[in-house]
Amino acid sequence: MHNFVRILFETGVPLLTESDTYGMVIVGFSLHREFALLQSTGMRPYNILLASTVTPARYLNTIATEGTIAVGKNANLVLLEKNPLKNISNTTSIAGVLLQGQWFNRKQLEQLLTEVESAYK
Q1: How many Cα atoms sit within 13 Å of 39 on the Cβ side?
Q2: Looking at the chain, which terminus has fewer C-beta neighbours within 10 angstroms, N or C?
Q3: CA angle 7, 10, 43 (to 5 degrees)
Q4: What is the pLDDT of residue 11?
Q5: How, if at all, do strands 77-80 and 94-99 pair?
Q6: How many domains, in total, are found in the chain?
Q7: Alpha carbon distances (Å) from 72 to 26, 60, 64, 107, 117
Q8: What is the model's pLDDT at position 24?
Q9: Rounded CA separation 3/5 (Å)
Q10: What confidence tens digit (pLDDT) does each residue in 62-84 have?
Q11: 3-state secondary structure string, the chain?
Q12: How far apart are CA 55 and CA 24, in angstroms?
């Protein structure tokens, strides 16, 4: 799968993250593992982030409301403490999440992640 994904990326095939390509999906955990695996194929952090934001919005025909930050679009974003363009693992440095206009701080996110993690034990 690693080589296949690398070939797709190198030939310009638009890729989407959050699929089941690399195994079982566990909300809040598996996406970061997928990012690391994609980077190991040679994808740059910028392209990995595009595969998580703009490309899915284009594919789902929701680019008018999702995928980028602009006036009039849905208020959904992740605020990071470190730059993911320097290192894709910086996507784990989450300070907070804005979801449908509601802010979740780090403490609230930790509680949600603990609940998800315990559901899979």
Answers
A1: 18
A2: C
A3: 100
A4: 95
A5: antiparallel
A6: 1
A7: 31, 18, 9, 28, 34
A8: 59
A9: 5
A10: 999 999 999 999 989 999 999 99
A11: CHHHHHHHHHCCCCCCCCCCCCCCCCCCCHHHHHHHHHHHCCCCHHHHHHCCCHHHHHHCCCCCCCCCCCCCCCCCEEEECCCCCCCHHHHHCEEEEEECCEEEEHHHHHHHHHHHHHHCC
A12: 22
Q: What are phi and psi of 96, to 5 degrees?
A: 180, 170
Distance, in Å, from the CA atom of 113 to the CA atom of 118, rounded to the nearest integer, reads 8
The tokens for 108 are: 């609230």
pLDDT at 118: 85
Q: For the sheet containing 77-80, what is the strand order?
A: 77-80, 94-99, 102-105
Domain that holds residue 60: 2-119
Q: Is the pTM of this model over 0.85?
A: no
